[in-house]
Amino acid sequence: MDIRPIKTDKDFERALKRLDVIFDASPNTKEGDEAEILSLLIENYENQFYPIEAPDPIEAIKIRMEEMNIKQKDLVGVIGGKSRVSEILNKKKRLTVDMIRKLEEMLHLSSSILVSNYQLTK
């Protein structure tokens, strides 16, 4: 087992290739331990140099709607009429506290995601 810190993209690529080879190693074996350590090093490098930002509230709603096979029309009555739903999903209007509560319950999204600030379109 030759494990070194991941400091460059080249090191990162090398670690990914090695992990690909030993990914299915049994736990509590030399290769299993190596895979576990490499996974942690790779995750740390990715978080540091390739962070993934959380989507804005409207994008989070759209993603969850797609995951749950919910259509725009299904939000009518939950966050308002047809035009209000359209205004919200097109970022013309902001979510209200009441809408956030209802969406949190319906879509099982954290209110901390839904209360985040986002830019309205003009």
Residue runs with pLDDT of under 50 for 5 or more positions: none
How do the SSEs run, as a string of H and E?
HHHHHH
Please state roughly what percent of the residues sit in beta strands, choosing from under 5%, 5-15%, 15-25%, 25-35%, 35-45% or over 45%: under 5%
What does the average pLDDT come to? 94
Within CATH, the superfamily of the largest domain carries the name lambda repressor-like DNA-binding domains
The overall strand count is 0
Number of domains: 2
Give a description of the structure.
The protein is mainly alpha-helical. It has two domains: 9-49; 57-114, 434 Repressor (Amino-terminal Domain). Helix content is 56%, strand content 0%. The chain has six helices and no strands. Helix 1 packs antiparallel against helix 2. The radius of gyration is 21 Å and the shape is elongated. The chain starts with 8 loop residues before the first helix and ends in an 8-residue tail after the last helix. The model has no long low-confidence stretch (mean pLDDT 94).
What's a quick, concise take on this entry?
With 122 residues, this protein is mostly helical. It folds into two domains: 9-49; 57-114, 434 Repressor (Amino-terminal Domain) (Orthogonal Bundle).
